[in-house]
């Protein structure tokens, strides 16, 4: 009688221990599953798919700090190309400059106004002149804020009888702002100045 009771008690202890281990194992497995699921969701959400020329390209989202210098250089390059790429068409000039002015503060607007008042754009149109810009280098200092930059480029001024090459050097600083359709990088060029803009070569056509 007592032996049976002892066996029952032992069996109950074994069952209780087995149940405890099973519950703890299940809890650990559930936590692991939830963790892996969250990581999978986070990885999936970090992927961005871009449709380009009928092809789907995959991109990955990342913290801004990881790519801040790359984004800053692209912002500066985009601004300079929009501001200095000109064709003898008033609407094309206004469209390009308008897009450029979204990327900079009043210092760029002042340079545009000075060029317009001096008749620069009128001369481009009346002389059938095109102007192209090639970026040579952009240096951005991201150790202190606002970020200062130095841009070196070459202008090709294509006239009916000649092609003039000019060296263009500008400097300024970058301030972070909200991203938008007009300013996808979320930077604003400030205190923008032209350090040098002089002829370095002339080619007859």
From TrEMBL:
InterPro entries: Conjug_transposon_TraK. The chain crosses the membrane at residues 20-38. The keyword Transmembrane applies. Keywords: Membrane, Transmembrane, Transmembrane helix. This is Conjugative transposon protein TraK. It comes from Dyadobacter luteus. The gene is traK.
